[in-house]
Fold each of these.
Amino acid sequence: MATVATTQAQQKVAIITGAGSGVGQAVAVTFLANGYKVALAGRRPEALQQTIDMAKDDAGNALAVPTDVTDPAAVNALFDKTVEKFGRVDVLFNNAGIGAPGINLEDLTPEQWQSVVATNLSGPFYCTQAAFRVMKSQQPRGGRIINNGSISAHAPRPNSMPYTATKHAVTGLTKSASLDGRKYDIACGQIDIGNALTDMARRMTKGVQQADGRIEVEAVMDPQHVADAVLHMASLPLEANIQFLTVMATKMPFIGRG
C-alpha cells in the first residue's frame, strides 16, 4: 500500500463505500457540505459522479474511486488513491451492502448467499483492515470507523437470512475493531438504520410482509436524518465514541416486532 503522509490535512478525510446511492450518497453529500474531503467508493462510476454533482460547490473536495469491496486488491487501491490525493484517512464509513431475494430460505442458492456475505461481511472486513494499516501509521495517528449495521442486527424480517446473518456479523466486526483499535487510537462504532426512504426501502411504502404473514405499509424517514447522525458520530474527538446508535422511522414496526 502507499506510504502514509506524515502531515495532517487541513480538513478531515473520509472514505464512504456505497456512495453512489441511498444512505451512502446522502452521507457523502453531507460530509462534503461540512468541510470533509471525501473519497467515494462504489461499483458504478456514473453513480459516483452523480453524487459528486449533487455536492455542487463542494464537489472539488470529492474523489470518485470505482471499487468492488468484495475484492481485497480493489479495497487496497481505494485507500492508496485516497492517501495519495488527500494525505490521510480520518473516517471510514462501511456502508456498501446488498440483500438477497425475499424468498424461502430453502430456495436460496449458494451463489445468492455468498454474494451477500461477500459484500456485507467480507467487504467491511477488507476495508477495516486497510483502514487500520493507514490510521495506525499516519500522523496524527488514529481515526474512526463507522459500520452500517441495520435493525436487522437485532431482529430479522421474514425471509431475510443472508442479510440478517451478515448484519449480526457486522456487530461482531464493530466490537472487535473497537477493541483492537484502542492501541492505535482508532474508534469504531455502528449505526443501525430502520426504514430510511432509499431505493432499497421504497417497497416499505407499498406494503411488506410482517412476521405474522400480513402485508402492511410501513413508516419511512428521510435519509438525511441518517446522514446527520453519521456526521455527528464522525465529529466526536477520538477520546469519545458512539458505540451503537439506532436511527429509525418512529412508527415502523420494530419495537414489538412479531
Amino acid sequence: METGNNAMTAPVRMGQPGSTPLGHNRFGLTGVSKSFDTRLIAIRADLADIAVAGEHFAPHYAAPMMGSGVAPYAAMRDAPDLSAPMVSELLYGEAFALLDVTGGWAWGYSHADHRVGYVAVDALGPTIAPTHMVVRDDVLVHSKMDSNSGGSAILPFGALLMGDVQGEWLAVSAGFVPLSSVTPVGTPVDMASTAAHFLDAPYLSGGRTAKGIDAAALVQISAQAAGLSLPRDADTQQMATTITADAPQRGDLMFIGDHVGLMIDADHVLHACPIQGKVVSEPLSMAVSRRSGTIDTADPTPIFKRLP
C-alpha cells in the first residue's frame, strides 16, 4: 500500500500578489472583504486559496495541488497538532486540495465537500480517477486474486478505488479487492440502506467510518452512496437542502437544532446519537424528546428536508 512518503513532497508554490513582472499574479480587492466560513473557505492569516483572491484578502495565495488519500482513513484536524480536534476524516482515494505543507502537516480541503483542515502528509498520495466505491466495511486489499491471500490494507465503507475488473476481482495499484465489495462510482444506493450499515457504530465527533462516525457524516456518506453531494456539517447540510417536507418519508433528512438524522420511514429516524454514543434507529418521538433536553437545542421541533 502506498504511504504517500514520496508522493506529495514537491514544494507548494505560493502566489505573492504583485511580486512578478508585467502584473502577473496581481489581484484587486475593492470594498469590504466578505464574511466567510472558515470551515469551507481555505484562508489563514498568512495564506489563502487562490480561488478566493479578489473576494478575501490574504498576504499570499496558493493554487491547490491535488492529491488523494492513501491511508484507509486519516484524521483531518483544525490545527497542525495531534491534540487538535478532529473535524473530519479523509478516506482512501478521496481527493484533497493541498495548499501548504508545514512540519509534516498538509493544509487544504477535501475536494468533495470543501471541508478545510490539516491532514498528515504521509496520508496523501497521487491523485486518482476513481472507478469504484467500497460498499462494505473492513474490505481487505488482497495481494493475489485469492481470498486466502494476505493483504496490504483494510478499507472502510466509502473508500474510492481506481482499478480494472478481472473476473470476480477489481485489480488496483495495491492489489486486488473482491468485486462483491465494491460498486461502480455513480451507481445509486438507497440512502437509508447505507445508513443502516452503520447501526451500532460508535459515535465519534469528526469520524466518517464504522469505527466511529458523527451525525452529519452518517448523512453525508449515505448521500454519497446515493450519488448525491452534501456538505460535511449539519448546519451547512440544512442550508444546502432547500426542499422542505411536511410529511416525512424514507430518505428525508431530519434536523433538530444542530443535529441531523435520516428518516427510514414516516415515524422512525436513524442517526448517530451522541447521547447514546452510537448509531441508532428509533422512533422519531423518542429522538425529539431526547434532543429537547440538550443545551444546544433551543427549539426541538424537527425540520424535514428532501433531497432532489
Amino acid sequence: MQIKNYLVIFRWKNLLMIILVQALLKFVLFQKFELNITLDFIHFLLLALSSVFIAMAGYIINDINDIKADEINKPNKVFVGKQISFKTANNLFLAFNSLGLLIGFYLTIYIHKNSFFIIYIIISLLLYRYSIDLKKRYIVSNLVVSFIVFLSIIIVPIFDIVPATNALNRDAQIVIFKLVFIISIFAFFLTWIREILKDIEDVAGDKKIHSKTIPIVNGIQKSKSVLAILSIITFIGVTYFVYHIYQTNSIASMYLLVCVSLPLLYFAFKIKVAKTKKEFHQLSNLLKAIMLLGILSILMY
C-alpha cells in the first residue's frame, strides 16, 4: 500500500490542524502573555503526539466499521479490506491507541495530576464507541465528534497552565484559560455544523447502515435550516467576542470580523440555497477555511 493512502486513512490534514492549534496556544499565546507553564518543549511534543496517535486510532477504527457506508459515499477512499487487511488495520488501531494512552498516562504523572488521565480515557472510549454505534444515533453522533475536537484544544491549558497555577498568578492564568475555552467552543460549533453538513452529503451510505442522522430523520430541508441557525448562533458569538476585544486589539477584531464572522454569515445564506453534493462539499471546505482562519487569529491576540 502506498504511503499516500496511509495519509488518507490517517486524515493527515486534520492531524496537522490538531498540531497547529496546540502549537499556536503553546508557543504564541502562552508565551506572549508570559504565563507560568508546566510542559517544556519535549513534554509538549509528547502531548501533541499523544493527541495525534489517539486521533489516528479513531480514524482507523472508524474506517473499519464504516466500510458499507463508505463504499457508497466515497468508494475511491475505501482502503480497509482492499489495500490494507482488516488484521493490519486492527493492529494499527491498537498500536496507536495504546501509544496515545501510555504517553498520556506518563504526562499525568509528570505534571502530578493523575486524575487528568480521565481525559484520555474519555477521548479514546468516545472514538471507539462512535465507530461502533454512536455515529448512528440521532444528534449524539455530531455532538460526540464536536466534543472530542473541543477536548483536543482545551487539553493544552489543562496540562500546561492548570498545574502551574497558584494564588500569585491565578488571575492572569484564568484569563488565558477562558480565552482558550472560547476558542474551543468556537471549534465545537464549527465542527458540529460541518458534521451535520457531512451527514447531508452522506445520506445514501448512512441509510445503508441504518444511521439516524439529522438529514435522514428530519430531511434535507430541515437540516439546512438547522445549519443556518447554528451558523448564525456562531456568527453572533464571534461578533460579540469581536466587540468585546475591540478596545484592546482593533487589528484582531477586524481580522475576526472579515475572516470569520462574515464568512459564517455567507455560509448561513448559501446553505439555504445549496442543492447538489458539489455545493455541499464546497460549503464544507468553506467551514474548514473558517476554522483555520479562526485558529490563526491566535497570532494576533
Amino acid sequence: MEAVAKAVENTSLHDCRDAYAEALEKMAAGDARVCAVINDSLSSAKLKNFKAKYPGRFVNVGIAEQNMVGVGAGLANAGMVPYLCGAACFMTARAMEQVKVDLAYSRSNVRLCGMSPGMAYGQLGPTHHSIEDVAWTRILPNIGVIVPADAVETRAAMLYSLKHEGPLFLRIARMPLPDVHKSGYEFRYGIADVLRWGRDVTLMACGVMVSRALEAAHMLESAGVDARVVNMSTVKPLDRDAVLDAARSTCGIVTAEEGLAAGGLGGAVAEVLAEEHPAPMRILGVRDAFAPTGSAEFLLEHFGLTPGGIRDAALELLEKRR
C-alpha cells in the first residue's frame, strides 16, 4: 500500500472496521432503537465496546446466519434499527434466502454490515472469500448497496444509514486503507464522488480499489494521460448521471472492484452504457474463477487489481480508441 498512499490525501492506513464500530456506538448513544446482532463474531466485528456499553441491545445468535437475518427482521418489525454484523461471505451466501424474503421482499429496516469482504480472508481460501456479495445484493429489489472507500467514508456512511428507510448492505473493508476523503466528509447516498477530474479516461472504483485508482491516475499523468477518478461507493442505486457524463466527456471507462467482474460495479455501469450511451469500457475484477489461497495483497496482484493493472487497462482502452 505504500505506492498507493503517495497519491492520496493521508498516507497513514486505517481499519474501516474501527470507524464503523465507533459510528455504531455513537448512534446507539443518541438513539435507543439502534442495536447489534452478530454471528459469534465479536472480535472480528469489533463490537466488544458496544456489548459492554449496551448489553441490552446486543444479540449473539451464534454461528447461525439465517437465524441472524430473521432476528434482525423481527427487531425491525418491533421498531428497532438492527445492524447485523458478521463475515460477508457467510452473511450473504448462507442467508441469501432470508435476505431476499425477510429483508428485500419485506422492505425491513435492517442494515447488513458485511465484515471482511472481498478477499480479506485470503489465506482461508474460497470458502471465506466474499467476491460475490455485491453482485448478489445488487440484483435484489429494495436493497441499497454501499461500498465505502476508506475509514472516513465508512464512518459517514454508517451515520447516514440511521436515517435511511429500508434494507441496506454496507461492505466494511478489513484491509487497512489510506484516507481518500478529508475529515468532515459527508456521505451522499446514490451520488458518485469525483475525486479527480480528467478529460481522457475515467477510472471508476469502489471500496479498496478507490485509492488504487487514484494511484493509477497519478501513473497515467506521468504518461501524459488525464484521468478522472470516480468513487462509486453507492453501487445501488447507481449514479447514472455520473456514468453517462464520464461516457460522454472522456474516451471510456475502466471499472475496478474487489469482487467478481460479472454482476457487480462493472456490470451495473455496463448496463447503463448499453441502455443509454454505448462507450468503450474495461471491467477489472475476478473473472469467472474462485480466487486461490494467499494473502489479500497477493490475490489483488494475482487478478491485476493494482494501480499498475488499472493504468494498463486505461492505456489499452485509449490505444484502441486511436
